[in-house]
Amino acid sequence: MKNYRKKIYRNYSSNSGKALAPDAISGLASIEPFYSKVIYNHFPSNKSIKILEIGCGYGSFQYFIHREGYTDSIGVDGSEEQVAEARRLGIGNVVLGNLVEYLKAQDDNSLDLLIAIDVIEHFSKEEVSDLIDDFYRVLKKEGLVITHQPNAEGVFGNAIRYDDFTHELAFTRHSISQIFLSSGFTTIHSYEDEPIAHGVRSTVRLFLWKGLVKPIYRFLLLVESGGVDKEMIFTQNFLTVVKK
User: Fold this and answer.
1) Parallel, antiparallel, or unpaired for β 237-243 and 72-77?
2) What is the homologous superfamily of the domain 3-198+232-243 according to CATH?
3) Which is nearest to 120 in space by CA: 146, 149, 99?
4) Which of 21-25, 105-109, 156-160, 218-222 has maximum average pLDDT?
5) Under a CB-based contact definition with an 8 Å cutoff, are residues 94 and 83 in contact?
6) Beta strands at 111-117 and 94-96: parallel, antiparallel or unpaired
7) Whole-number Å distance between alpha carbons of 167 and 184
8) What SS3 state is found at 175?
9) Short-list 189, 186, 184, 1, CA closest to 108
10) Domain ranges of the chain
């Protein structure tokens, strides 16, 4: 691991300059709509599947995964502070470890679902390629990978790309398909991180996003390039779901 990574990851929470974990479980309410949508739309219905989340932080996704009844799920993170926060919040099945080494220790064809939320952007191109090769190795046939990463196509994508000193990369739906296909995966779908309606404020945001902001972005791109890809993703981040 590069020295700057060790230096920052050792105390990732305090080095970020902001609290990464809430004071109590109730503080997860703001991110619940995102995680619930991912589970509802993309998780297999079988609650006994084997799930591994790498770079799980303080275990926020693990909390919702277990709350939804998935019984065989574990998260690994390399930050002692983050794992300590998980324990403080009472979030189980979060372990301390180097996520690359932990992944390499998994048996071939042993996992049903592998999750990497805001993780792959922390690696170099060569490292991401090797990591995704290991994704393919450890997944069962028709197993899934779910990733979430900065969107280089997005108007404000650089705000995410450069918000963390340990970020190495940003992706587009094309580049992320390229790297997964090159590792043997067959089906890749990427999704916009649009606002999720779960109250008045978020409903208004969604309405403005679809009816005003996104059409403006499309118009500006049309003026600049002469054409617009209908599938283009404009949000700062995007979600990708991949099947082996």
Assistant:
1) unpaired
2) Vaccinia Virus protein VP39 (3.40.50.150)
3) 149
4) 105-109
5) yes
6) unpaired
7) 25
8) helix
9) 184
10) 3-198+232-243
User: Residue 44 pLDDT > 90, yes or no?
Assistant: yes
Report the relative pairing of strands 111-117 and 187-192 from DSSP bridges. unpaired
Crossing angle of helices 32-42/60-67, nearest 10°?
A: 50
Question: Which 3 state secondary structure label does DSSP give 79?
Answer: coil
| Residue 209, token pair as written in the block | 């996003």
pLDDT over threshold 80, residue 129: yes
Question: What residues are paired with 206 via a beta bridge?
Answer: none
pLDDT score at 228: 81
What pTM was estimated for this model as a whole? 0.94
Amino acid at 10: R
Alpha-carbon gap, residue 10 to 98, rounded angstroms: 11
Number of helices (H) and strands (E), helices first, in the chain? 11, 7
Distance of CA 188 to the CA centre of its chain: 15
Q: How far is CA 119 from the centre of its chain?
A: 6
Quote the DSSP letter at residue 244.
-
Residues whose CB is less than 8 angstroms from the CB of residue 105 and which lie 6 or more positions away in sequence, other chains included: none
Give dist(CA 73, CA 34) in Å, integer.
18
* Residue 120 to residue 240: CA distance in whole angstroms: 12
- C-alpha distance from residue 219 to each of 93, 153, 205, 211, 230 (Å): 47, 15, 20, 13, 12
Rounded Cα–Cα distance for residues 11 and 200 (Å): 37
